[in-house]
Amino acid sequence: MRVDHAAGRRRRRVGTGRPIVYQNIGDPLFWAGSPARRLRVRSMLRRMAAVAALTETSRDVLISHFGVPPDRVEVLHNARRSDVFRPPGPEEKVAARRRLGLPERARVLAMVGALSPEKRIDVAITAVSPLPHDVHLVVAGDGPLRGELERRATTLAPGRVTFLGQLPEPLVLLWAADALLLTSTTEGVPGVLIEAGLCGLPVVSTDVGYVGDVVVPGRTGLLVPEGDVAGVGQAVREVLAGAPRLGLQARRHCLERFDMARVSDQWVRLLRALVTVEGEESA
């Protein structure tokens, strides 16, 4: 536990009179890119009783670029319930495909996210277009680019790209899929990568943000440079060819690092430490 209790007492009052924990959920270098914004963020973070970072790398950034004292930054991973996000049985997989209207014998690539510029769904469509015709891309999500992306898919990969719109629960798509694809230009630690891994799906992703904490190249999937259309296509071929092996390792990796029960225990220890300080000060 790195939390400095005395520091927490000194810097806890940010309008509430209570200890405040800030949870960093994205890439701090991206959302605080300008000097003025970095200065404001630096001032705010230094007033926190504790700062929760998603990865060791983001912890280092918060310390080196924003001046947060090392003893007040805890690494608390993004997490999901492994009993909910689990590999489907054969019958569950077939049922999921039928529910979504997908071909039972296709090799299905899932994408989950907003249809907005930073997600670069256009890269995914272009990368999939020259792949064998049994490779089917299924996109869950909505956004301002939907019409444009649907037209692109009709032109480049007719009949092989399905837009589902918003899904109330992405689990059905993960159970229907053989792999997950992510082509964003910026990310933190996307929860969908953890959900996919726990469901036993390998991932092809652009190497942005802290994606590398979830996707271990050659072990749980593959990483490609941002905007590399040919690289995405080749990675998809390789990952689909090794999907059973990679999926088993993805599940194991995510259980070790991102299981909700494990991360919840870490949060409880952190919050109890701060509550103890608050009680001592009030006594």
TrEMBL record:
Could you name the domain of life of the organism this protein comes from?
Bacteria
Q: Which residues cross the membrane?
A: none
Q: Which Gene3D superfamilies match?
A: Glycogen Phosphorylase B
Which GO molecular function annotation, any one, does this entry have?
glycosyltransferase activity
* Keywords, alphabetical: Glycosyltransferase, Transferase
Coiled coil regions, renumbered to chain? none
Domain Glycosyl transferase family, by residue range, is 96-242
Pfam families listed in its UniProt record: Glyco_transf_4 (PF13439), Glycos_transf_1 (PF00534)
Which stretches make up the Glycosyltransferase subfamily 4-like N-terminal domain? 9-79
Protein name from the UniProt record? Glycosyltransferase family 4 protein
Q: Which organism is it from?
A: Nocardioides mesophilus
